[in-house]
Design goal:
alpha/beta, 27% helix, 18% strand, 2 helices
């Protein structure tokens, strides 16, 4: 079975001390290049997430806290 979407949590999952490692960024890029959509799901508000994560264009979508649906970075 081929994956079509992966949803990842930010804090403590793909980021340690508010930083995503180069290896994590590369793995996300590899997944996207193979046709898997990568969505960042987080308990943070979108503005707070942008503050710590920076550019979110490495994801196909972002699902922040309190949002009724996924948004595109």
């Amino acid at each position: 079975m081929k994956l079509s979407v992966i949803a990842l949590d930010y804090d403590g999952t793909i980021a340690a001390q508010n930083v995503m490692s180069a290896a994590v960024r590369e793995a996300i890029s590899t997944a996207r290049c193979s046709g898997v959509m990568v969505v960042l799901a987080t308990g943070r508000l979108l503005d707070g997430l942008r503050h710590v994560a920076g550019d979110l264009r490495g994801f196909d979508g972002v699902w922040p806290r309190t949002a009724p649906c996924c948004t595109c970075p």
